[in-house]
Design goal:
mainly alpha; 2 strands; 16 helices; 2% strand; two-stranded antiparallel ribbon; 351 residues
């Protein structure tokens, strides 16, 4: 075994320590990526996907089903509106920058839904080539890395509550690994909200994949379904209703967090300057613009929810609070959806 492999394995083992936080694990991977060649590039990619799924399932053992349902309901409308806005905006910016439709769609879907998982699920449906997939993944993972460090700092600066920060992470950060990493640094309640909303968001891979089979005329391609989310829900149910499991759940959650740190280390170890050069300027501009847009818009709406609740009189004469997100996002939904469908159909006919 050569020295590169020894250094890499020692660093990977170090990230399993409880003293190494998720951002530090990512930073360690980034440092190695710039200083030496990756000794296990293919195995690392496969391990990343498996570890992320197992870690997410493990985090479910630290959650209560009632809290998860509440968080999911609060983020549902936010999720639908933000996905449609990002997909529509991404389409127009991609055309302006003269980026091919498949690369634009992969970056937009990665930003709108769940980063690398969405890109991996949609690429076979679109029949994207390796270069298009690599560019989309490189763009998303670079912005993920920045988000993991920036979001907790901004959250503390704006004095966001645990719920607010968890929702903001789930909506604005691409990949589940970085969402969980940033939220875990902010607090336990933020972690629960962020994980629940993000996984509910990940389910949108399914309808978007079916829509892509129509747009790209690939009806015979099998759509990938994120089955691990069902195991995450089962873990929450087990922790809520089975006393024996809930008694030892903190051990499982601890293992899940260690697995997440290792996942982020592996992601960071694959992000070298060479990756940045391969992405190119136009896709990076597209990805950054969409990320800044959804981050700023979602943060604004979350702050509006706190400062300016809309009070309406209910039928029984009692006052109730209606989140102004309904008044902001709902009018955008039909416009965004119709615009996206029209232009996609038009483009598919011309190509």
């Amino acid at each position: 075994m050569n020295i590169r492999k020894l250094i890499f394995l020692a660093a990977a083992a170090l990230t399993l320590s409880p003293y190494i936080t998720a951002p530090l694990a990512l930073l360690l991977g980034l440092v190695l990526a710039q200083t030496m060649e990756h000794p296990y590039p293919q195995s690392s990619q496969k391990a990343t996907h498996l570890l992320l799924k197992l870690s997410v399932i493990g985090l479910g053992f630290g959650m209560n089903i009632y809290s998860a349902i509440t968080a999911g309901k609060e983020g549902l409308l936010f999720t639908v509106g933000s996905i449609l806005v990002v997909l529509t905006t991404g389409y127009f910016i991609g055309r302006k920058l003269k980026i091919d439709l498949k690369t634009t769609s992969l970056i937009s879907a990665g930003t709108a839904i769940c980063g690398g998982s969405a890109i991996a699920a949609l690429s076979p449906v679109m029949k994207a080539n390796q270069q298009q997939i690599s560019v989309a993944l490189g763009t998303v993972f670079m912005l993920n890395s920045a988000a993991l460090f920036l979001f907790p700092a901004v959250g503390h600066w704006l004095h966001l509550s645990q719920n607010q920060f968890g929702l903001w992470c789930a909506i604005s950060i691409h990949d589940t690994s970085s969402v969980v990493g940033a939220a875990s640094k902010y607090g336990e309640q933020a972690l629960q909200v962020a994980t629940t909303v993000k996984l509910a968001r990940a389910l949108w891979i399914i309808p978007v994949s079916f829509a892509a089979t129509y747009v790209f005329k690939t009806n015979k391609v099998k759509v990938q379904i994120p089955y691990f989310i069902a195991l995450f829900v089962l873990a929450i149910l087990a922790n809520t209703y089975i006393p024996f499991i809930s008694h030892y759940s903190h051990y499982l959650v601890g293992l899940a967090k260690s697995g997440l740190s290792l996942t982020l280390f592996l992601i960071g170890s694959g992000l070298s300057f060479k990756t940045l050069k391969e992405v190119g300027s136009s896709p990076l501009v597209l990805g950054t613009t969409l990320w800044v847009l959804i981050s700023a818009l979602s943060l604004y709406i979350i702050l509006v929810l706190q400062i300016f609740p809309v009070i309406l009189l209910s039928d029984n004469g009692r006052y109730k609070c209606i989140p102004p997100i309904i008044m902001i996002i709902v009018p955008l939904l039909p416009v965004s959806l119709v615009t996206q469908v029209i232009f996609n159909i038009k483009n598919s006919k011309t190509t």
